Amino acid sequence: MPSEIIIREYRPEDLEQVLELVRELEAELAEKFPEVQLISSVNDYKTRYLVPGYKYKTFVAEIEGKIVGYLMGYPSTGALEVDNMYDIFPSSSWKPKEFFLKITFVSKPYRNQGISRRLHEKVIEYAREQGYEEIYACIAKWNIPEIKVVSSLKFEMKDLGSRYRLTLKLR
Ligand SMILES: CC(C)(COP(=O)(O)OP(=O)(O)OC[C@H]1O[C@@H](n2cnc3c(N)ncnc32)[C@H](O)[C@@H]1OP(=O)(O)O)[C@@H](O)C(=O)NCCC(=O)NCCS
User: Fold this and answer.
1) What is the pTM of this model?
2) Which end of the chain is more exposed for a tag (fewer CB within 10 A), N or C?
3) Residue with CA at minimum distance from ligand 1 atom 5
4) Which CATH architecture has domain 5-169?
């Protein structure tokens, strides 16, 4: 019988397992872009992305207690330069309209089993519940698997040259 895949919110006790996936992602990126020197983001995950209460929201895929993938997003101000440079804290009086999908990673042996798709379905459900008006991702054109997943979930694709902006209106 195939093992059950659990998709759930990230919990602080998942930290080490997610960091291991980040290292795997970075090794993959280093292979894909051999001419660039990659500075590891492990520390950013520890001090920003995975810190409870920060703007980032992470979901994980778990199989028999092992975290095999994650998806991270955050509420977007609509100004890319602000989003990229600053962390904001959720506020009860300010509600952004857009939720941005920052990154999805699934460990190689677990790919092509629909795990990324399940993670995206979960984050769409979350964004809808939270009252966002839209959810979007920007995906490089070379990333065929990720484009396939997101476009199959009825996101609208806009061609931005080297990448697509994929948007799903939630209301
Ligand atoms: C992109 C990624 C998250 C997809 O995860 P996944 O769990 O394997 O995705 P799914 O199984 O839900 O779906 C993958 C789809 O791509 C298809 N696919 C996979 N490799 C492909 C290829 N080389 N060419 C065309 N389609 C391909 C699969 O058939 C599947 O489509 P289907 O459901 O119509 O059959 C995973 O490959 C990954 O972590 N890649 C490295 C990191 C990355 O690029 N992240 C995204 C950018 S932020």
Assistant:
1) 0.95
2) N
3) 116
4) 3-Layer(aba) Sandwich (3.40)
